[in-house]
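Reopening: Serine/threonine protein kinase still failing for me.
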Amino acid sequence: MSPTEESAQSIEIDAEAEAEEPLDVDQANADAHQKALERARDLIGQTISERYRILDLLAMGGMGAVYLGEHVLMHKRVAVKILHPESDDNPEIVARFEREALVGAHIDNPNIAHATDFGKLDDGSYFLILEYVEGKNLAEVIREGPMKPRLVVHVARQILIGLQAAHDLGIVHRDLKPRNVMLEAGFVAKLIDFGFAKVSVGKLPLTVPKEGRPPSRLTGVGVIFGTINYLAPEAAHGMDAVDERADLYALGVMMYEMLTGKHPFDSTDPIEMFQHHRTTPPPPFSVRAPDVKIPAELEPLVGKLLEKDPYERFSNAGAVIEALDALSISSEVVEEAAVRSKKTPPPPSVSVRPPEKPSEKASEEKTPEKAPPSAEPRKKKKKARGDETALSARRAPERKPSPINYTLAVVAIVAVLAAAFFASR
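Support: Ran it again with your exact input. Result attached.
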């Protein structure tokens, strides 16, 4: 496994781990996985909960499967997550699933994939309906090489907007990583998979009584879970010690990867990697990526996100957004370029010119520029024929006599004068 691939140390199987590399399992587990895969494929073409038709299998993991689905009445594409039946016996997995549904239903933000439905199938399997995000995840983009700094700022800003919305509701993602960030056309970022989130249930607008609410803690005190490559140093004290600044640390690692194409630390051992997070300062960009040109103003910003002491980092997502906006790099330029390269050009009837400035427009109105008659646009029909006659009369004086006509006129005048002279004699 390369340093930029994820080494998850968790109490449960990472749902998408198999998308990164094949599992090293014995024959019995391999047979169980194959059986689960066949069962997942059997759902294609079926309709669940009387309204969601399963169209295709998108991903398969240890916890369950993710499908492309369609609401049969609204004809809208959705993402459908279904837990494996055997996962229903694991209360931790079920709690994580319920947590993802809860968070996705209560955060209304364009940079977070929202959940719209949650329930059980006839066989007892839990299902979750999520917004379908068409595009790549950020991990796929990073594997293609370093990203342009302007694009990094653009993507990071959107991630922060999503995090700010979650943090305002007392929700900490706690498993922020490139594979949990989807990028749509135009590089629109959406956060997904809040299964490990720390939720302050009291801040959510829930309608159920306290005894019916999901538990606020996933595991026992002192247990560490998440993805080691992006885990904040303070997680060593247990996940209860983690707050929104841990999400900002994970974003710092992701920005480092986006800019350099490499993780700050080289290690394939989870314990050694976490020790780097706790004690090793991130190397300068020039050391990890000497051939990549990165604006100097980005290094201290990323460095502050990667501070070992959470109190030395930015205090919240809003503060990071302000720091990004203060940079000389403009994310709007990247966004416009990305949209132009991704989206279909508008039809000819739609104007794509930017609006004119009032001063320029007023100046143009005062001194209109006349185009030659051959270049003038076709005129609309006049209300009365008299308008055309008047227009023609106004244009007649503008015609200049040709040189030939002028010469003939002069000769005729001379001839008349000569005839008059000789007649008088």
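The mean pLDDT is 77. If you still see a failure, please send the error message rather than a screenshot.
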